[in-house]
Write a structure and sequence with these properties.
This protein is of the alpha+beta class and 268 residues long. It has helices spanning 37-67, 75-88, 108-116, 125-147, 152-169, 180-187, 258-262; strands at residues 18-20, 23-25, 198-200, 210-214, 217-224, 240-243, 247-251. The strands form two sheets. A five-stranded mixed β-sheet has the order 3-4-5-7-6. Strands 1-2 form a two-stranded antiparallel sheet.
């Protein structure tokens, strides 16, 4: 747990169940198609979890390849195909049951497709499309890696796949496509959990905890400092944190857009 009054937010993984000042917001990875903002939030968390599972599998495949250099390193192909399973899900033709799953059975790409079909004009549309395209691009590299006998070609393919998956995950501190799914969760309404209090980001927050939103961007999270501590709901990629006697306001990278979103009447 990070104490917001002492340190800037960092390192809390967005797929972890969100907590705000002792209020537990449980988000399960639902398999139903996304139709609401709350559904999209759940889909985004599930997609990110699956992407991280795929990255873990690629790293495991690479470790297996290196450890098997003296012979018997065939486990790298199984780990590489498990990464494919994490991306495509159990309903896809490329899914191979014998290699198992690191994530859920839906698959990162299915979760991303559900979100991307919702609103092409939303501020999260580009970063989600960016994440989806890079996740797709990792699959041919992984398939090539599994087709080889865990050799130098496999190593190069695994490295290329890892780069694509890292781009899909993106950075919470980035707006737009380069943010990938992490940026979409940190800077847009995709990061607002179901049941959370949403306030206009152009006004000074008076309710805590609350999420400040403007034109689909998540600009800040306002948290109470009850008993001297508050837990942040996600990795917001933020370096701007304002405190008062009884609350803290954590600004996301979308704070840079406040003048354009709010105009001269914005305050806070």
């Amino acid at each position: 747990m990070h104490h917001a009054e002492h340190v800037a937010p960092r390192g809390l993984l967005p797929w972890v169940a969100a907590h705000v000042a002792g209020v537990l917001l449980v988000c399960s990875a639902a398999a139903a198609p996304a139709t609401t903002a709350a559904d999209n939030h759940v889909e985004a968390l599930a997609a990110l979890a699956n992407l991280h599972a795929a990255i873990d599998d690629v790293q495991g495949a690479h470790a297996d390849l290196l450890s098997g250099a003296a012979g018997g390193g065939g486990d790298c192909a199984h780990a590489a195909h498990r990464a494919i399973n994490d991306l495509v899900g159990s309903a896809d033709a490329d899914y191979r049951e014998s290699d198992g799953l690191g994530g859920d059975a839906v698959g990162a790409l299915v979760h991303l497709e559900r979100i991307s079909g919702e609103d092409a004009a939303a501020p999260w549309a580009e970063p989600i499309a960016h994440a989806r395209d890079h996740a797709r691009a990792a699959i041919p590299h992984l398939l090539h890696a599994t087709a080889e006998a865990c050799d130098e070609t496999s190593r190069r393919e695994l490295t290329a796949a890892a780069a694509e998956l890292a781009a899909a995950v993106g950075r919470a501190s980035e707006l737009g496509p380069l943010g990938g799914i992490s940026g979409a969760l940190a800077t847009t309404v995709l990061g607002v959990p179901a049941g959370a209090k949403v306030l206009p980001a152009c006004e000074t927050p008076r309710d805590f905890p609350s999420y400040g939103v403007a034109a689909g961007y998540l600009v800040f999270v306002a948290l109470p400092l009850q008993q001297g501590k508050a837990r942040l709901p996600a990795d917001l990629g933020s370096t701007l944190l304002l405190t008062s006697g009884d609350h803290v306001i954590v600004y996301t990278a979308a704070e840079a857009l406040r003048p354009a979103l709010c105009g001269p009447v914005g305050n806070g």
